[in-house]
Amino acid sequence: MVKAVVGACWGDEGKGKITDMLAADADIVIRFQGGANAGHTIVNEYGKFALHLLPSGSFNSNVTNMIGNGVALDIPQLIHEIEDVVSKGVPRPNIVVSERAQVLLPYHRLFDQYEEERLSDRQFGSTKSGIAPFFSDKFSKIGFQVWELFEEDRLMEKIKNVLEVKNLMLEHIYHKPLIDHDELYKTCREYGEMIKPYVIDSVQYIHNAIKEGKTILLEGQLGSLKDPDFGIYPMTTSSSTLAGYGAVGAGVPPYEIKEIITVVKAYSSAVGAGAFVSEIFGDEADELRRRGGDGGEYGATTGRPRRMGWFDCVASRYGCRVQGTTAVAFTVLDVLGYLDEIPVCIGYDVDGEVTRDFPTTGKLEKAKPVYKVLPGWKTDIRGIKKYEDLPENCRNYIEFIEKELEVPIKIVSNGPAREDIIMR
Ligand code: GDP
């Protein structure tokens, strides 16, 4: 049985918390895309953790956590995160890494930074974790799969070929120091030694796990609107954020993915540049940002203040649809308890025409939000365990949004901790 936990919008919906919670009943948790460029914040009995590459099942000793072939594998970062959770009292997590995962190298970060510098005021707002240069190299077929780190002669030769073009770019486009062949070779060999204990044939491993009836969770990073095909291209990430890609990035048969749990946040937030129709500004935004998430809406990787907005039915319905959602986990609802009235974006006005369908980026940039204002509930709902015990206006908010999403909200999250959950 394979389930995917993915995001509906721009990311930071609380996927980490939902995966950590669902991991209690899982055997394997797999990261299938992205890299260390975004973070999941998890609060549990061991404390508060910002994970970037470690799968969110890392706190459950019954779980094997896999870095799938679709991930940008930053080896020192992964080792650092493992040692960090262990140093904070978490039992050493069971980690395996696909031999087909590709390796993020130091120059990917540099190229990310240099390109943003070159773009200057047109930059993408990259986290500079090297993700875009990494995936460009992967699809230009000049990336390095993990197994290549162990084949010395081949590695030597390949580095020579790759550096030919990299150094031309460094010299003529970016005017930066060149990369030394022997130094890069040494780095690759060191990376190889670091990762060796974790490396497996993931195709075989997953095949056996499915045959044995294991429960597998696929953990997505970011959300639908950052998907390079269906998101707000080009202000997207560089690997697919969709559950469908989970089949590729983890190596599971597509028909085995039986449940797609899309995490949807009770209001909107976004990091990085790009269209954000229901964005709010000024004091209204500052207050929501300050009260949002667990201790404020600031990026888990960069610490940057997140852009804030009201709930967007158009974007979220579309986000759920492209994921193929079977159930929604509706999160961070407790944060809205301070508001008298809560605006919800129900349509986009594009050149005087109102639409409920999420448009392509050109039109999206012109869209103005059409709001419906719902009454607030003005109470703290943390600690409530049963759906019926939620205030009426709060249930009305959930049910209004459920109708707009056109998929059932089966999980409601009313606080950052594992146990702050209401099952419907
Ligand atoms: P992810 O990348 O989707 O896992 O999301 P992040 O971890 O970046 O952001 C979610 C933030 O909201 C984290 O700080 C979580 O601890 C917090 N969080 C998750 N669910 C809830 C919730 O129901 N209520 C509150 N107040 N915070 C939550």
From TrEMBL:
Substrate binds at A300, T301, T302, G303, R304, P305, R306. IMP binds at D12, E13, G14, K15, N37, A38, G39, H40, T127, K141, T237, R304. Keywords: Cytoplasm, GTP-binding, Ligase, Magnesium, Metal-binding, Nucleotide-binding, Purine biosynthesis. GO terms for cellular component: cytoplasm. The keyword Transferase does not apply. Plays an important role in the de novo pathway of purine nucleotide biosynthesis. Catalyzes the first committed step in the biosynthesis of AMP from IMP. Belongs to the adenylosuccinate synthetase family. This is Adenylosuccinate synthetase. It comes from Candidatus Ornithomonoglobus merdipullorum.
